[in-house]
Amino acid sequence: RRAQHIGYVMQNPNQMISKTMIYEEVALGLQRSGLTEEQIREKVEATLRVCGLYPFRNWPISALSFGQKKRVTIASVLVLDPELILLDEPTAGLDPVGVESILGNIRDYHQAHNATIILVSHSMEEVARTVDRLVVVNDGRIPFHGAPSEVFQHGPELEAMGLGVPQMTRVFNRLRAMGVDIGPSVYTIEQAKAAVLAKLKGVG
Question: Torsion-angle region of residue 146: left (phi > 0), alpha (psi -120 to 50) or beta?
């Protein structure tokens, strides 16, 4: 029963896709849901719109790019309304536009359904602007966990593990090393802007 409330998206979409057409793939999980064909159609089309795939709903999956296939696998999970979604490197191999599109879909679903999203990623830039809690796993251990603002203060240790920190964190660490009195909890562009404006206002 619990498995019905959990969605899992693999890193490689080709390992998940089993149907030929986009609509069929997204509708597959609803076939035994007890919904009528009309209800399934409405639910699938609504999900395709959210994931930016509605114009391609009647396309064969073979005609899609790698990033679009990833959206199909995410749509096939979101259509089931899971309470928990596990995403394994959902943006690996995508260009910046594709990355932001998929992360936007994930954020929108989280906000609309109050679902728990577990995102597995080696990209600290993505993690920084997406999650509100971060768990670092290294050699089977959890050396750091907590809010990103707390975890990213361990920059040298993270880099030693091959993870690193967001670019904004590096910039502000450098500013502090140069003697600029500025807080350590900066890891996104929005936070950097606010910190710089606050500093300039204080100087003025």
Answer: left
pTM attached to this predicted model: 0.77
Q: Write the pLDDT tens digit of every residue in 1-57.
A: 555 689 999 999 999 999 999 999 999 999 888 899 999 999 999 999 988 899 999
DSSP state of 70: H
Contact between 148 and 154 under an 8 Å Cβ cutoff? The reply is: no
d(CA 14, CA 28): 16
Residue 13 is given by DSSP the state G
Determine how many CB atoms are found less than 10 A away from the CB of residue 186.
Answer: 25
Longest Cα–Cα distance in the chain: 66
Q: Which helix (H) or strand (E) holds 6?
A: strand 6-9
Residues 6+ apart with CB under 8 A from 121: 89, 90, 91, 127
